[in-house]
Design goal:
The complex is a heterodimer of chains A (821) and B (136). By secondary structure, chain A is an alpha+beta fold. Chain A is built from 26 helices and eleven strands. In chain A, strands 3, 4, 5, 6, 7 and 8 form a six-stranded antiparallel β-sheet that branches. In chain A, strands 2-11-10-9 form a four-stranded antiparallel β-sheet, with no helix packed on it. Chain B starts with a helix and ends in a 15-residue tail after the last strand. The chains are: A alpha+beta (821), B alpha+beta (136). Chains A and B meet through helix 7, helix 9, helix 10, helix 11 and helix 13 of A and helix 1, strand 1, strand 6 and strand 7 of B.
Chain lengths: 821, 136
């Protein structure tokens, strides 16, 4: 079975190589048959990866612990759903899952577009297949998920980290991955357009939809991550600017920027270089995000795997992406010249431009701040860190400006706004914002920054309402129906525009949730039974502690009554759970009382059973639920924008059919009521290495306990590993060199078995070189095949874009045609 | 037409300088030195009053809690150098004798004053099993 898996991966690699070679050659020779076979190969990759994934899931479901990866991330007691979710629980499997998704997406994108964009397809196929090649190469030489134990396999697995055994965690990574992977498709089309020189707007039309889907999944993944952090981790917040979170946010910024600037190119033929750049950057950032969290270049309180070899491979790939892509952009610059200049700064395209700069700036800022500790260490030799405060000082004003632009953009006309229409457009939104300010001042709400956020939210909200009402009025007059029907018809008529406004509405709600954080109240208290504490509007009374147990765990539960203005709101039961076999790692079960206005969030931080007293961390989180609701609204908006025209042709007077799906999604995202959550904070203290040599050795010597699957002693948690670490420590302290330590272990165990990898010397070096030789020769073979097959026809593949009769006339014609939309 | 590149360059220059200045000034307030106890205690006077993230290990049996409060006094060490610390608030589950911690706060003459919520227990394998995009 595992052998079949490895074989499948290897054959996928070969098929990928063929797809690249055949497509490139086909495009250059204009051989329909080669192109077709390239497309066929791409479909074949999807089929192979599907079978490989099925094999992997089968291994998890049947508890095949002969496979290291399965043993590491699953155990027999795990529920079926988590066994399946373990597939993407670790590095090796997540890379495989990535390739699987990309192969499916790639095939779909090619299938959908192969007739419409014939000239681009071979290049799209080769870019997708080349990306897949990289990841499969990574798997085959470095992280083969199908690798097996050489020794007799352990009888049970180690289990997925309990912290990740959670509903959100099961769907959060696939959602983020889907978002990440979907961004590869626009990139492939972008590169194809650059390679062929077909740089008119056709490729943009092909990728808009994909970017939107990717963007939606990215947003969904980010939201789920926030929800998970909020419910599981027990610190009362949802976003901590952790490098892992930032990694998901970076491509989100550039994708958002692209979705906006693409409109400018479609309508006005401007910003072409910019759009291509954004597509490339987005793809690059998805790869960079994976690299950042996986290779250990960035460190945070939470340690990620540190892996130099992986870092090297990723660096090579990223450099290759950047040089090829931007090389192509520079090569095609003459074809990328815009058809228009910016007419006026008081125009919609200018607003989009500013929005793009800010989004791009946000991406670079977050990137810079995330990389800052690494940068400062490299430049000054001193590790300086920046905390969430630093992120917040910057991102808060940036967020507010973006919110303002969300309101202003739709009010400005394309090309140039006149004073008269500015007045007409801004009257109501400004009134709305002013009313909000007056009301806030009357209630004594702080102006900076929550007050401003509320006022801006009002502004944007009125803008959106005005757009809908004005549009509906016009349509009502034209069609003679009632206003509601007119409004639905309006949405159906230009889905992207009004879908976009609904997305904006979701953004406003999310910002309300963020603004609520300004009014967060926290209290940490020790309470004896019947004592109470008041936090904000709420009074929390400690009623007592209960000690119970079931067959899995022992539970210490605090019983807490919550009152608001003297009225009882019910009982909350925050708890600590002590799982059997993990007694020294209690898990924190947060209890939340949700409501639209405020959440009461109670954590049992400590307890004393004898005196029945308990330590509580209580947080009152205003408006936080609007973040999740806001995402639901955003999803509905995106859904509307994505709907094919057909879906609306018969739904024009009815409720759009996706509403039910979106509603379900909303319910999914927003589980109401009180629920004790499950979290675990595993603890373990490893001996910190005292020298660089010792640190290296901890990564090079393997724990010989025989049950932990050849983990490095630096990462294994068993007692044997601890002993071995101390052994290494004393050896190093005795002044032994690396060689001496190796020899010590080889003598002790009679072979090189305790070494993580064969000594890099002499004959053993062959084993080190082998994968690289394989990879390089593969690349050379592909290049050779591509050149060879395209040998006969060497004429330039680029047929220049039709220039038209008269550029001026063409521009005007385009403009008018677009205005019909 | 000649003026356009100049305009763009000038705008870009102004923006870069403005943002660079802002970034520099906020960075000075926002950064914290990430140091091990022994590095800091080699020259305590130089580090007093600076924002620090102090990395060390809780000295065995050094944790004292004032009964019925959340006031903690404890010592952390690395490579033999010890510094006393005080903290008020809830500590993470993993905070106990011998655990590896990172403390946020400032060094004073009488020890290290930890910021509210400034105790972070470092767990090397906590998210090891996490997918690429696990949240903190």
């Amino acid at each position: 079975m595992p052998a079949l898996g490895t074989f499948l991966l290897l054959s996928t690699f070969v098929v990928c190589a063929y797809a690249v070679a055949a497509s490139v050659a086909g495009a250059r020779r204009r051989s329909e048959r080669l192109i077709e076979s390239g497309i066929g190969a791409l479909y074949l990759i999807a089929a192979l990866m599907t079978v490989a994934s099925a094999l992997m899931i089968h291994a998890f479901v049947t508890d095949n612990y002969a496979i290291k990866y399965v043993q590491r991330y699953s155990d027999s007691a795990q529920p079926l759903a988590y066994k399946i979710a373990s597939y993407w629980g670790g590095l090796d499997g997540s890379i495989m899952f990535w390739v699987f998704l990309l192969s499916v997406f790639g095939s779909t994108a090619v299938k959908v577009n192969r007739e419409k964009h014939r000239e681009l397809i071979p290049w799209v196929v080769s870019v997708i297949a080349a990306t897949e090649m990289f990841f499969i190469f990574l798997m085959v030489v470095h992280n083969n998920p199908f690798s097996t134990f050489l020794t007799p396999p352990p009888t049970d697995g180690r289990g997925l980290n309990p912290l990740l055994q959670n509903f959100y965690m099961a769907i959060h990574p696939p959602s983020l991955y889907t978002g990440f992977v979907a961004m590869t498709i626009p990139f492939a089309f972008g590169i194809a357009a650059l390679a062929t020189g077909h740089l008119d707007d056709a490729w943009l039309r092909a990728v808009r939809r994909w970017t939107m889907i990717g963007w939606l999944f990215l947003s969904f993944g980010l939201t789920l991550g926030m929800l998970w952090a909020y419910e599981e981790l027990g610190w009362g917040g949802f976003w901590g600017w952790d490098p892992v979170e930032n990694a998901g946010l970076l491509p989100w910024f550039t994708a958002t920027a692209f979705l906006h600037s693409v409109m400018v190119q479609e309508r006005r033929g401007m910003l072409r270089v910019w759009n291509v750049t954004l597509v490339i950057l987005t793809f690059f950032l998805t790869i960079f995000g994976t690299f950042m969290t996986r290779s250990g270049v960035v460190q945070s309180v939470h340690a990620f795997g540190e892996d130099r070899e992986l870092a090297l491979l990723f660096t090579i790939f990223m450099v290759a992406i950047l040089t090829t892509s931007f090389g192509l952009v520079i090569y095609r610059l003459p074809l990328l010249r815009g058809r228009h200049e910016l007419d006026s700064w008081v125009s919609r395209e200018a607003a989009f431009l500013v929005n793009n700069w800010i989004l791009l700036f946000s991406a670079f800022f977050v990137l810079f701040a995330t990389m800052f500790p690494t940068l400062s260490e490299a430049l000054r030799g001193e590790r300086l860190t920046v905390g969430p405060t630093f992120f917040n000082t910057w991102m808060l004003p940036i967020g507010l400006i973006l919110l303002l632009l969300t309101g202003i953009g739709p009010l400005l006309a394309w090309r140039k706004s006149t004073i008269a229409n500015l007045l007409q457009q801004f009257l109501w939104p400004s009134t709305g914002a002013l009313t909000a300010i007056v009301a806030l001042l009357a209630f004594g709400v702080r102006v900076w920054s929550s007050g401003i956020c509320f006022a801006l939210s009002a502004f944007v909200f009125v803008t959106i309402a005005q757009e809908f009402v004005r549009g509906a009025r016009v349509r009502q007059r034209a069609t003679g129906t009632d206003i509601l029907t007119a409004m639905i018809g309006l949405v159906a008529r230009s889905k992207r525009r009004y879908g976009g406004y609904i997305v904006h509405l979701g953004i406003v709600l999310i910002f309300l949730g963020f603004a609520g954080q300004g009014f967060k109240q926290e209290e940490q208290v020790v309470l004896k039974p019947a004592q109470q504490v008041t936090v904000g509007h709420f009074t929390v009374r400690h009623d007592g502690l209960a000690v119970t147990s079931d067959n899995q765990k022992q539970m210490i539960t605090g019983h807490v009554s919550v009152f608001k203005d003297g009225k009882s709101l019910g009982v909350l039961e925050p708890a600590r759970w002590f799982f059997n076999k993990h007694e020294d790692q209690p898990t924190t079960e947060v209890a939340i009382r949700r409501s639209g206005a405020e959440d009461v969030y109670v954590v049992l931080a400590g307890y004393d059973v004898a005196s029945q007293s308990a330590t509580y961390a209580i947080t009152v989180n205003p408006l936080v639920n609007w973040i999740w609701i806001g995402f639901g609204v955003m999803a509905i908006g995106t859904g509307i924008a994505l709907l094919p025209d057909i879906a609306f042709s018969f739904a024009i007077a009815r409720i759009p059919s996706t509403a039910t799906t979106s509603l379900l999604l909303l319910l999914l995202v927003f589980p109401a009521g009180l629920r004790a959550q499950h979290a675990e904070n595993p603890q373990e203290v490893l001996t910190v290495p005292k020298s660089a040599l010792e640190r290296d050795l901890q990564k090079e010597i393997i724990c010989m306990c025989g049950t932990c699957g050849r983990k490095r002693i630096g990462e294994c948690t068993c007692a044997r590993a601890a002993r071995m670490r101390e052994e290494v420590s004393t050896l190093v302290a005795d002044g032994k060199s690396r060689e001496d330590v190796y020899q010590y272990y080889i003598a002790k165990y009679g072979s090189q078995e305790p070494l993580a990898s064969p000594i890099n010397k002499g004959f053993n070096r062959l084993a080190w070189l082998f994968p690289y030789v394989l990879g390089t020769s593969g690349a050379v073979a592909v290049a050779f095949a591509a050149i060879r097959w395209s040998h006969r026809q060497v004429e330039s593949p680029s047929t220049s874009v039709s220039v038209g009769i008269n550029p001026e006339l063409q521009a005007r014609l385009d403009d008018e045609l677009r205005d019909l939309d | 037409m000649r003026a356009k590149p100049i305009k763009i360059a000038a705008t870009a220059a102004v923006l870069v300088v403005a943002f660079g200045g802002l970034l520099y000034s906020t960075l000075r307030e926002g950064t914290e030195y990430y140091k091990h106890v022994d590095e800091v205690m080699a020259d305590p006077a130089a580090w007093q009053g600076k924002r620090l993230q102090l990395h060390g290990f809780v000295v065995d049996d050094s944790i004292f809690v004032k009964p019925s409060t959340l006031e903690y006094r404890f010592k952390i060490q690395s490579n033999g150098k010890i510094v006393p610390a005080r903290y008020t608030g809830v500590v993470p589950d993993t905070f106990k004798s011998g655990s590896e911690v990172v403390l946020k706060g400032r060094l004073g003459p009488d020890g290290f004053a930890v910021d509210p919520n400034g105790v972070m227990a470092k767990c090397p394998s906590k998210y090891e099993a996490g997918p690429a995009a696990t949240k903190s």
